[in-house]
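An instance follows:
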Amino acid sequence: MLSGMADPVEFYFDFSSPYGYLASHQIEAIAARHGREVRWRPYLLGVAFKETGQKPLVEQPLRGPYHQHDFARSARRLGLPFRLPSPFPFAGVAPSRAFYWLEERDGALAKRFALKTYDRIFGEGRSVNDAAAVADVAVSLGVDSAALVAGINDAAIKDKLRAETEAAIKRGVFGSPFIYVDGEPFWGHDRLGQVEEWLARGGW
């Protein structure tokens, strides 16, 4: 199947999600093997937590220590570096706004920015939770830092992220990563195998 003949794989994620980081390094290759493109969609997982009544994984009793172990183990399996940043968890508002500002100008660049931001956060363990840190990532990709900071603070971009988050939750998105293939939802990095099988088989 040629790219463009089928709907893109929809990849919802939060920049504060370690499992989103792991999935970000795999989703494009998975989709490409089946002639699909990927639509990257950052949203604010904290808003979804208010709907579900949950807390971030690392703050949950019993589950927290397990997931901290699993983050690193899963990264080693993929050959990816892993370090939790401080503070963690954090609000991914600034990088999410930056993504949508960039996407309006260059969709491919926005994806590169998202991946590089994830690498900065979880590959290097460095916080990217404010405009200055976001601009530092963007500059390395040739983006004008002053323009990006202005974009992050633009009312239209703030509204865009708010609308994307509301639309995601209304659709049923509650985790990161959360992936749709032709309307079929898959939650979690550990469902990427099913995502690929669904793409190959067309469902079951």
Q: What stands out?
A: The chain is about 55% helix and 10% strand. Residues 107-123 form the longest helix (17 residues).
